[in-house]
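Contributing new records

If you add data, match the layout below exactly. Sequence lines come first and carry their own label; structure lines follow with theirs. Keep one chain per record. Anything else will be rejected by the validation script.
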Amino acid sequence: MFKSFLGSVPIKAYKNLMEIMPNTDEDAMPATAKLGRVLVTGGAGFVGSHLVDRLCRDRNEVVAFDNLSSGRLENIKKWLNTPNFNLVKADLLTPKKIRDSLSDCETIFHLAANPEVKLGSVNPKVHFTQNIAATFNLLEAIRQAEDVKTLVFTSSSTVYGEAEKIPTPEDYTPLEPISVYGASKLASEALITSYAHTYGFDAIIYRLANITGLRAQHGVIHDFVNKLVKNPKKLEILGDGTQTKSYMDVEDCVNAMFKAMNGYRGRVEIYNVGSEDQVNVKEIADIVCEEMGLRDVEYVYTGGVNGGKGSKGDVKVMLLSIERIKGIGWKPTLNSRQAVRKAAKTLLHKRE
């Protein structure tokens, strides 16, 4: 019987479990039976909780590992009393907790990280400890466990830095991140690659564009809504408003992760995951204002740093080439503007 930090979880019949499982599209959600028991670090977080939803709906045995510093219990509360789910409230800086949680796990989804890019410019140690050191601790536990077959890691488009080639493919060089956050993701990629080759497990690395949608707790859409709720007449926009990037809905993101897991062949595979278009910050402000029913809002631009960026470490233009993952049969269902609009609608609906 599974146990969580909340206490023993009563075993219920699967017919009760199925009551909270919506119908799913078999093409959108590949079979996951081959994954075995699954550990998801950051399983109560934004993307992690959506991944947990998918795995639990597909009846996998799932262990969510989260210290709940940014993850939220409400994101996974519907699974707490189901027989195939276990929540471990712990930190990746505690090696023994990791080793204990890895018992019999064949697949690891490593999503736990501090995602605040701006934080790195004032406190770089946070990204070192919570991203790099945490990944090292996980890899050491995997090395000692010997049961793990596959490690899936969510990296970031920030590893490319200010790429000169747009759209940017996976084999672009040189990789020169301009933020400590991007550097921490690239360092984690290198550690994972070396451990996979040395200790004989497979690794899949996803370099993600900006992910939006239900349960997101930070980002430009979230910031704009909060600012406009406080003052519907004026909106402060960091930078010059021309920062242009790719945005992707979280459901597309999770679908891409499973699709690529069915298609990879090598010991280590890297996939860009994003949409095929871009949207700038001013356009995002327009969309949020439209969804809030606001007109004639005054936009006040801060001017930003280093040529109009919102903050130090911010990449001003980003668009990933997704030809590699499209080659195995995946493509996003929403473009950047549609993903932004859906996220705005979702956030506003939640506030009602």
